[in-house]
Model the fold of this input.
Amino acid sequence: MKWSEALIPTLKEDPQDAEVISHKLMVRGGFIRKLASGSYSYLPLGFRVLSKVKAIIREELDSRGCQEVLLPAVHPPEIWKKTGRYDLLGAVLIKFKDRSGKECVLGPTHEEIITDLIANNIRSYRELPQTFYQIQTKFRDEPRPRFGVMRTSEFIMKDAYSFDCDIEGLNKTYKKMYEAYCAIFERCGLPFIPVEADPGMMGGNVSHEFMVPAVAGEDRIVVCAKCKYAASTEVAKTDGIGGRAKNQKEKTLPIAEVETPGITTIEKVAELLKTEQIKLVKTLLYKADDKTVAVLLRGDFEANETKVKNYLKCAVLELADAATIERVTGAPVGFSGPVKLKDVRIIADNSVKDMANFITGANKKDAHVINVNIGRDFETKEFVDIRMITPDDGCPACGKAIEIKQAIEIGHTFKLGTKYTEVLGANYLDKDGKENPIIMGCYGIGVNRIMASLIETSNDKDGIIWPLSIAPYSVIVIALNIASEVVKKMADDAYRKLLKAGYDVLYDDRDISAGVKFKDADLIGIPVKVVIGERNAKLGMIEAKDRKTAKVDLIKSEDLTSHIKSILK
Done:
């Protein structure tokens, strides 16, 4: 492709609304343009990258016997209501009415749709196992679109669904898909880490996320360098009290109320009472479906709402609002505590179990209580792991030191079991003629996120550094002075030779300064630059530069294709 004939609108400055490097470079490099909040157009360069990512996905899945389908984007709400996810997803679902007034849903995912399809088309064990996938645009009413194409209302996703007769079959399929994911992400040049994860609203009991460590990541993962344990912080188990401080045995002291006028935070209460945060117990009030629950944690720890939700087995978990807190405790937000808390279920993190003489809210405005002790001042028998892991905790697997990293989720796999097939009637007849629910798995990849994640992890001060596998072009031919006859002739010849040899080639034939051409080439990140200047052209020589290593070779024009082959091998 000749640059003079292409739409590659590069920019010198970062867009004002861009927060992360991938968003900045994708806009500056002419890969994307914003239409509205959470909605982007992919320009030719961006589309070429997406196409190469999709090609890799298809090659790896097709080679493992997966079959590609295309499912409807517009769904009837009734099928979502059958599984309960119509209410569970709530405002995330984008809904509209057609001309007849019938409600429709834009699909954020397709578990219900593929299961309904299988329910109506597979009846016998002889037709199983089967795995299907699609690459399609999905929709969700994202409350806070950000980071360019990483969090959008409209996104491209590869979702796959497997159907087996039994758990043994699912385990084999899951392993196959897990290996396919590793191959896909390796080929895309991503430094990924598979981690144990929470299935969330998808359901099932086994789940893995494929994460790319990056500063821009909105997720957090736990990694152990010793035993290679890796998990999402949502599911990583803790050792109870953590490494920062140990609960000490103390003589029980008399409970007492102290005034804390206007002081509502753990930090400020500890400061006022001249103590450490580890001597406080925070009381968080949640609405678990339709019931209020009090969650107790040591003052320096954070609640892990995924663990809380899973322990309570509730469909919806959210912090209680101010009105509920005042109704339940008799005090405004910031003064809640377990002492004299009536008709509320109390669950406590393991970190609280052996604490003595701790400080809590007094359920009274502008007051806290000191020297609180479990058993004497309030009761709870429920001690569970419901806090976030910290860098001071030991590895859940081997006890050694851990590291907590920010990461971007690029893929997620689930063992769903019969969550959808039982509800939607996807059954099969076994060898004995008995009807059984089909066992299901689900596997997703964020296609847009692969593109953004690669840029987050592969860039320098000048721009993007693409791997050959998903680069929009393999080689860029730069004619430094296109007005020079000798330069144009050699550049034209180099362009033709490389195309004939089967390379994706971008030919910068613009009549602009060499400086701008070099800056643009580095910005868009093509793996190899072939530079043709007048002095070298007169000597029959061409300069080849590797974008990643910055290594420059001066070669004879007749050796161009063989040299490019050696660089890109």
